Inverse folding.
């Protein structure tokens, strides 16, 4: 079984656009708390971009992330 971090990375790499924590949680069935921790780590890495913008899925303005 893949780790939550790997599942989130794969989701972001295969789905273009920005995604909020809630939409990633619904798509992957992973608790929001786990996603928040992974997203903080990914936002500091070189392969992802974090911002405050509209989510590509729900359109709510929130902290979001996308694959670079």
């Amino acid at each position: 079984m893949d780790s939550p971090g790997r599942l989130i990375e794969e989701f972001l790499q295969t789905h273009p656009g920005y995604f909020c924590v809630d939409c990633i949680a619904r798509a992957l069935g992973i608790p929001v708390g786990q996603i928040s921790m992974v997203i903080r780590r990914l936002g500091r890495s070189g392969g992802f971009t974090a911002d405050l913008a509209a989510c590509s899925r729900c359109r709510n303005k929130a902290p979001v992330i996308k694959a670079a």
